[in-house]
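Can anyone check this?
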Amino acid sequence: MIRCFLVAALAAAALLTAGPAGAAAPSVGECLDCHGDKSIEMTTPGGQTVSLHVDLEEYRRSVHGGGSCVTCHTDAKSPHERLAKVNCGRCHGDAAKSYASSSHGKLRAKGVADVPACHDCHGKHGIRKSKDPAARTFHLNIAAACLRCHKDRAIERKYGLPGEKEMIGYERSVHGLASKGGQMGSAVCPDCHGNHTILPGDNPKSATNRQNIPTLCGKCHTGILDKYERSVHAKGMRAGIAESPVCTDCHGEHTISKVSDPNSPVAARNIPKTCSRCHDKEGISSRYALPKKRFSSYMDSFHGIAVEYGMTKAANCASCHGVHDILPSSDPASTVNKANLPNTCGRCHPKAGPNFAKGPVHVEITPSKSLGVFAIRVFYTLFISALVILFVLHVGLEMYGRWNRRRKGGAEGKGSPK
């Protein structure tokens, strides 16, 4: 019984490694009799010249280096005409299935040639394991592999992809710089977009779909995710409110930078503008019954003016409302709940007592909202304007008087006898 099984297995192996009409499959050495020549090339139907040279040393170092050429080129014989395309799915079925369902795979199936196939990312004869630092898909090399296409302006325009500036932004981002610095824990393209099953962001199954962004970022930023999930923003997002912010709305996507970076949207000086992108929109504030004119009322305050002039220690939105764990003021756990305001203000003003934060915080300077503040502002606006006008008038009259006196003195000097 065992002998019969071995005979059948050997016969099957012989069929797999045999060319058409039962011809013996060529060995690696026989293939390299031609393909070892660096000058060997062919012209594609599109008129492109392609090298057919195979570097034996590179092949031997590859993950497939211990096998035979016909394992991949199943129709190869010696000599041969144009071979069929290699089907990686014969061995890598799961990866091939995932790739086929991806944006790349669907376009490739339609005959679109400028989207990546297996060899564009993994290589051809020099494929290495992803753990090998020499592999194209090694963690610290993968971004460069992706950017070969995603920094191509023609491809960007053709498929409506993020522009070259976005890609350069990634290279300069906190993630990109960490990757360049050799940090294996840094986020690279597949960490966010996936490996083979890359899908557009508007697909609900995509890792970068809006609903999936917090969970995606939370793979690395676990503690922050826990805080965010308790916030009013996360609850709104989970309830299907499209305008409720996720990580990328505040931090950006490819251009994420450190909080200490002055250009970061979450730098102390930029936080009010970042928050106002949503909270200053009439449609959002009306639809969800949110307080209006939060940005303008903040910028009219001492804190807002101080931040505008570069005092980064002055309180901004996050200083009072929190960062990832923002809650409505009606929530007892909220930092801006009335009971918690003395402690919140006390972080900057240690002697703040129960009366410190009494009264409205965001003051809208209008007759209907705050008549006293409005009247004082009008008085001082008129008073200071009048002072400036009188000062300019005084200086003007004084200068005119000096000029007039000099003119008269000069005229009298000319009329006097010599």
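Reply from J.R.: I decoded it. The first helix runs from residue 2 to 16.
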